[in-house]
């Protein structure tokens, strides 16, 4: 989780954020649409939709765009029929990855995901080979304008499992169902929540020190996230800031 998080920060600093924003909005719209079709258009009663709405707002997606996607999911506007697929794979260095996709063409997506790994020295894995080590958690990043003791005092009273120094922020991990209560409690205590997401967190971290492996892993991450069908990529690599900077350059 920490390596993945640092990599995303480096991409932002290198000016890729604007290019990625359009793709992010398109993917979020697809997620909103599918979640609405599966569980209804009311975030209060559809936990999956509530999670994606929060994610969309954190990405600065407009309320109008969110509403349009939900209306498509409710059948008020036409839209393609998508199915959800999760792929499991290994990147160089033994790094485990989960790839969540929403697609209207299973064969196309499977081929694209397989190519992203094969051309960079990775390989697809059998179902269950990777997924067992990942579990869904809520992760809240808090600005360091407050102390760790202050964060812990509030967090532990509202479902937090762990508080970790994540460089520029405090990272608080909780059960995914406690995410909204925890976020609200931290903000109510006057803390600045940088992000709050429901994500997949691995119980194992794989240190990556070889620069060739690091470059290959980040190339796979970039290729997957450039794919419109791929919605989320989760990985368990842990790289030092120096390795990440060199590999991402």
UniProtKB/TrEMBL annotation:
Localization per Swiss-Prot or TrEMBL: Mitochondrion
Protein name: Unannotated protein
InterPro entries assigned to the protein according to its UniProt record, in alphabetical order: Integrase-like_N, TACO1_YebC-like_2nd/3rd_dom, TACO1_YebC_N, Transcrip_reg_TACO1-like, Transcrip_reg_TACO1-like_dom3, YebC-like
Keywords: Cytoplasm, DNA-binding
Signal sequence range: none
Keyword Iron: no
Region (Disordered): 1-21
Species this chain originates from: freshwater metagenome
Gene3D superfamilies reported in the protein's UniProt record: 1.10.10.200, 3.30.70.980
């Amino acid at each position: 989780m920490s390596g993945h998080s640092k990599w995303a920060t480096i991409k932002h600093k290198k000016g890729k954020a604007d290019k990625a924003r359009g793709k992010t909005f398109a993917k979020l719209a697809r997620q909103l649409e599918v979640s609405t079709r599966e569980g209804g258009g009311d975030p209060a009663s559809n936990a999956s939709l509530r999670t994606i709405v929060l994610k969309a707002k954190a990405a600065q997606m407009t309320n109008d765009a969110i509403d349009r996607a939900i209306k498509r999911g409710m059948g008020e506007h036409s839209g393609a029929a998508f199915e959800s697929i999760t792929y499991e794979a290994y990147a160089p260095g033994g790094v485990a990855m989960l790839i969540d996709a929403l697609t209207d063409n299973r064969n196309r997506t499977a081929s694209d995901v397989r190519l992203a790994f094969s051309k960079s020295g990775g390989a697809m894995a059998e179902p269950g080979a990777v997924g067992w080590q990942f579990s869904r958690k809520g992760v809240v990043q808090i600005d360091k304008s407050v102390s760790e003791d202050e964060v812990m005092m509030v967090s532990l009273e509202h479902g937090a499992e762990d508080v970790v120094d994540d460089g520029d922020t405090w990272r608080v991990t909780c059960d995914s169902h406690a995410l909204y209560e925890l976020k609200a409690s931290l903000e109510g205590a006057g803390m600045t929540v940088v992000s709050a997401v429901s994500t997949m967190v691995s119980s194992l971290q794989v240190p990556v020190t070889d620069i060739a492996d690091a470059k290959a892993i980040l190339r796979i991450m970039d290729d997957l996230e450039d794919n419109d069908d791929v919605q989320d990529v989760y990985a368990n690599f842990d790289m030092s800031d120096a390795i990440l900077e060199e590999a991402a350059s």
